[in-house]
Amino acid sequence: MYYSDSIITTMQANKILALKVEEALAGVKDKIISNLNQIGDGATRALYYTSSGSS
User: Fold this and answer.
1) Model pTM score
2) Alpha-carbon distance 24 to 21, whole Å?
């Protein structure tokens, strides 16, 4: 009986760990997307300023 309880406990712990890793990676993904959007916005502004200044 001890072995099956140990296996079940280990599997439950692995499931919890996998869910926490998934949550963390989702947060990282969201932050990367946000940063890329900000970089794109900055590049758009830079192009706007450089093109309007030369006309």
Assistant:
1) 0.61
2) 5
